[in-house]
């Protein structure tokens, strides 16, 4: 495997709207980010991913871009962005941005021109299609609910949107549009970006016949992903994208790619893959409900462990995946993957240990490093996220009462990750002086950065240490992954191997103590990190509940 500049790096995702507000309008901004670069650097981060900061009407929190060349006023100016790039560079950190090119906003100039002339050249930047017998062209349900087809006013045509109706899909079959997107990507790379996180990219290839699929819900529609999964030919588009952009700059790219099968991994993240890496969402997908969040299954420890093990084993033959426990679309990892009894500082450290020391590029989501948790939502009106509100109504239509529909949203809502970063224990968590755009989790009194920075035993300092270890030890970057105790009811343990070096990670995920036999080869090894105060690691040992340790030899 050829070494790449990003192999040993660690990334941190910022959700700008909720990171830090510098001017009291209740919305996080670039100035806020700049002022916290030292904090991020202190954690040990090399790469910062910014969720979208482009000009946008914010129907889907900036994932609906109305100008790819402008910074959203809410966040600041292009000068401030340049300052952020320069300040990051000074600290030897790289910035990557979100690249949202499956769709744009209905306020983008291209779409306005398309609507103004539905037979003109701009209409072909999108998918404008005639309906069938007074119905939309096909029976697809968008990811955010309702039909994927919206009427084009004044015509008998519809336009396609896989997400909200304000996010029309871009027609990747159009070479002029493709070139404009490539130019835009290169413009940002020229500016000094290190790369991109690439949004919803599996959706760019459509079946141009737009066939119907069997209905899979009470609305008589069929999830639009069925068409995406059934169509071939995305590879050519992705290869074209890479060759015309990323490749020339040695950019680091991490794609949001769901539902790949093993046989495709090499094309995506192999030596000459379309991307540097893709996120491993396999654990997150365990809570996919058949019909929505209301029938989302609970995650069991054994299933979760097996899922992570399997993806580690599959991926290491090919390349690196990016490991996460949460992001801006997911509930907080502590609330999701830890049983209730373990949602404390020690349990949180244990979860971090398992995740950061896996093979792959760790992505830490803002607040994860201090152990932020899901908020308690008292009514559906407290949510802001378009997807959450849709899921609430899906649950109600399926017959759930208000309380149960709300409970489903509390558990799964994307807004759990979008409550403001908890900088201190004050009423507004040090996030803003004004009215925050979304509610602040009242547990900021107990969970906040200020108190953790002062406490060497805190989750923050534990993460800092985990991250430092990954930089010190090549084995954490390149070592082969080997699972241990795969049948055990309590323990998650794995080994990493690099030539003669060995690393052993052991965690007890249960509420009871658990026995573990330290392999003889770890005789005389060194303990690199532990969340409790164990001193002896030899023979048969008994781990306390949510105890974690890492041995190195
Ligand atoms: O997400 C794509 C995607 O597949 C998600 O919508 C996912 O299905 C959903 O969040 C599960 O709850 C990306 C972005 O990460 C997301 O924030 C955007 O809303 C979406 O694309 C549209 O751009
Ligand atoms: Ca602000």
Concise description?
The protein is 29% helix and 17% strand. With 553 residues, the chain is α/β, with parallel strands linked by helices.
Topology:
Blueprint: E1 11-14, H1 30-35, H2 37-43, E2 47-50, E3 54-55, E4 67-71, H3 78-90, E5 94-99, H4 109-116, E6 128-130, E7 140-141, E8 149-151, E9 157-160, H5 175-191, E10 195-198, E11 222-223, H6 225-230, H7 234-244, H8 246-249, E12 252-255, H9 265-269, E13 277-280, H10 282-285, H11 301-315, E14 321-323, H12 333-337, H13 345-356, E15 361-365, H14 386-397, H15 402-412, H16 449-453, H17 459-472, H18 474-478, E16 480-484, E17 491-498, E18 501-508, E19 514-517, E20 526-530, E21 540-543, E22 548-552
Parallel strand pairs: 1-2, 1-15, 2-5, 5-10, 7-11, 10-12, 12-13, 13-14, 14-15
Antiparallel strand pairs: 3-4, 6-9, 8-9, 16-17, 17-18, 18-22, 19-21, 20-22
Helix pairs in contact: 13-17, 14-15
The chain binds 1-O-alpha-D-glucopyranosyl-D-fructose and calcium ion.
Please characterize this protein's 3D structure.
The chain is 29% helix and 17% strand. The longest helix has 17 residues, at 175-191. Helix 13 (345-356) runs parallel beside helix 17 (459-472) and helix 14 packs antiparallel against helix 15 (402-412). The chain is globular and about 75 Å long. By secondary structure, the protein is of the alpha/beta class. The structure holds 1-O-alpha-D-glucopyranosyl-D-fructose (TEU) and calcium ion (CA). Residues 21-23, 25, 27, 29 line the site of calcium ion (CA).
